[in-house]
Amino acid sequence: MCPAPPQWLRLPSKKNWLGASVWIAIAVVLWFSEGPSVNTGDWDRVTVPAGFLAPAWEPMQTQYALGTPAKIANNSSMGVMLSTIGWIIQGAGQTTLLTRPIFFALALVMVLGIFFLARQKNNSSDILVLSVFFLVLLCYAVYLKSFYGEALVLALAPMLCVGIRRLVLENKALLFTLSAVVVLYAKQQMIFVAPVILILLLRNMWLYGAANPKLWASLLCIISVCAMLFGAHPENKAPNQYNRYFNGVGWSLLQSSNWPAQRFEERHPYFYQHQHQLKTLFSDALPHYNYLGTSYLPTASTLLDTARNSESTEAQKKQAKDLFDQLVVQGRPDVYLFTLVQHPVILWQLVKNTYLTLVRSHYVVDYTRSGLRLTPAVAQVLGNAQTLLARMFGWIFIVTLLIALVYCRSLFSAAIAVWMLLAPLAVVAGDGYFEFEKHMTAFFIFLPCALMAVILSAPQSSAVSPSENSLP
To answer: Cα 203 to the chain's mean position, in Å?
Structure first.
């Protein structure tokens, strides 16, 4: 007698077919409605190793000529994927990279993840996760047509949710590990969610015993990715340190959340237009208070340009370089923390302004979007829906995590919820309020995974015997 096919290959019930079909239809419509994303210049680190340079401030093209030899780049998930594709194409004697197959593949992975997630039992966690993922798609489907790291986070978020279910309910780690590794390595800032992944693994070790070699292998993979993330993108160190102190502390003391601006692209020019009046509000007891409120671009970068300018005198170069070094060191973690300890009022203002900024910001980042590919009437309706939702996403993030926290059934789940609530502070402590909305995007996209991790409860029995017929 032939063995029964795996459960995930069996035909689902009519109810599950309906649920999966509805969510997949929603995802496909939203995905097709968005035009290709606009490159803000961030694609360079993944496109150059792949053999081409995507022009900044232009939408993704349907194809790119590979004009330079491709080199496998181990700087992010997207970097590895794109540079490998470029290397394979050149190895086959071709010189053109087509982008549509790439974002079709990303969309397919996302749809498969939605299918497997939607056909699970319709309990409260799945419904909440799918609902939040729908809201994420409504705002961020555009990222699937880009080379941003968020594209991989969005494509794999449903699959990671399925992996979390398998890990928590059946102690199966393969799908969870593969998805988590790619999601974590998608962007350097995703190292913040590594504790969520680690807590899930440690909980399984606590409940089911630490003798499972698959859990240890998964743990080793996650720790290895975290180690690589710590050393990634050294070119961002100086900008991050400068913005951490001067922009983050400066705007917090100025209560930037009260300014007549809802996005960084509006707050940034507002500060520089009013900086002479605003700077009078700073205490001269703060280190380099005259520079508080400024950002690496354009203030610190101008100093660095002067230090490197061949037309500058040696004295001017030395003066600019010394000042640049003095300013950047203020954001070094130990110096930054010492300043917060010396001036406790800063910490309170930073926390308050961060969360007020979170709930008052507008999260549709127009400068990455090339528009909606719909008839004007339909595009206006969808555009209005996106705008309304984008003004509420900060509240959605806070409220859903607080609701999940209320229903937590273990300290493990509570720890995950509380940790994710600290994400906005991690953004400001990482790069100030510079492109705050853009930096929160990856955490918003990861929100369904965090909710799944918080709400899903492990079986009472510690002797779990996973079904042989389910996904790994």
So the answer is: 24
The CB-side HSE value for 395 (13 A sphere, CA atoms) comes to: 7
The continuous run of DSSP H or E covering 132 comes out as helix 124-140
pLDDT at 15: 60
Q: What is the pLDDT of residues 75-106, one digit of tens each?
A: 899 999 999 999 999 999 999 999 999 999 99
CA torsion 276→281→284→287, rounded to 10°? -80
Element housing 98 (H / E): strand 96-98
Task: Judge whether 75 and 46 are in contact, CB under 8 Å.
Answer: yes
Backbone angle region of 53, left / alpha / beta, with phi > 0 → left and psi within -120 to 50 → alpha: beta
User: Taken in order 395, 396, 400, 403, is the CA torsion positive or negative?
Assistant: positive
Number of H helices and E strands in the chain, helices first, is 22, 2
Tokens of 302: 């101008």
Judged against a pLDDT cut of 70, whether residue 122 lies above it is answered with no
Write the CB contacts of 298 (distance below 8 Å, at least 6 apart in sequence).
none
pLDDT tens digit sequence for 155-189: 999 999 999 999 999 999 999 999 999 999 999 99
Q: Which residues contact 157 (CB under 8 A, 6 or more apart)?
A: 110, 113, 133, 136, 183, 445, 446, 448, 449
- Tell me the three state secondary structure of residue 29: helix
pLDDT at 460 over 80: no
Quickly tell me which residue has 């795996």 as its tokens.
Answer: 6
Question: Rounded distance, CA 20 to CA 105, Å?
Answer: 19
Kindly report, residue by residue over 313-371, the tens digit of the pLDDT.
889 989 999 999 999 999 999 999 999 999 988 999 999 999 999 999 999 888 888 88
Q: How far is CA 340 from CA 47, 285, 291, 355, 424, in A?
A: 39, 13, 17, 18, 17
The pLDDT, as a whole number, for residue 464 is 47
Between the alpha carbon of residue 322 and those of residues 103, 190, 388, the distances in Å are 46, 33, 47
Can you tell me the distance from the alpha carbon of 385 to that of 392, in angstroms, rounded to the nearest whole number? 11
The SS3 of residue 460 is: coil
CA distance 277 to 85: 52
The span from the CA of 329 to the CA of 326, in Å, is 5
Tokens at residue 341, please?
Answer: 């300890």
Phi, psi of 217, rounded to the nearest 5 degrees: -65, -40
